[in-house]
Amino acid sequence: RPGDARLIEEEGRKERPHSIMPKQVFFPNMYMSLISMKFLKHKVHPPQAVFRVAPSMNKFEIRDYLTKIYDLPVTKVMTANFMGQRKRIYGKRAMFTYKRPAFKRATVTFAKNAVVYSPARTT
User: Fold this and answer.
1) Separation between Cα atoms, residue 113 and residue 111, nearest integer Å
2) Which residues are registered as beta bridge partners of 93?
3) What confidence tens digit (pLDDT) does each residue in 72-113 have?
4) Disulfide: which of 10, 18, 22, 96 matches 89 by Cβ 3.0-4.6 Å?
């Protein structure tokens, strides 16, 4: 039980039994969906990508996510928070309201000569 504070002495160290305190595994609750890409083959501007991310993610987590998982050279991250839209549905007898979830938009700038997107040829 969670309120039980018994400790087990094993080999000179104190441990909690597994039935009281199970081992916690961390699974990050982060999602990123690509919205658009800009300046892919531009001569002056570096390539940029716009993502919709979880509102709890910060700029450092977005940069680490893209560099460590996808090995992309990120130089700059800009974020903007958006509140979910509220909608009203008018029925014959009642009015119903609902709210869409809030989200964050992240604009990521990559290195100037980086290959960010290369579509596969289909012939």
Assistant:
1) 6
2) none
3) 899 999 999 999 899 998 888 888 888 998 999 999 999 988
4) 96
Contact in structure between 18 and 8 (CB atoms under 8 Å): no
- Distance (Å, rounded) from C-alpha 26 to C-alpha 43? 43
Cα separation, 53 vs 83, whole angstroms: 13
Indicate if the pLDDT at residue 28 is higher than 90: no
Rounded distance between C-alpha atoms, residue 90 and residue 84, angstroms:
19
DSSP the chain: -TT----EEETTEEE--TTTSPPP-------EEEEEEE-TT-SSSPPEEEEEE-TT--HHHHHHHHHHHS---EEEEEEEEEPPPEEEEE-SS-EEEEEPPPEEEEEEEE-TT-----PPP--
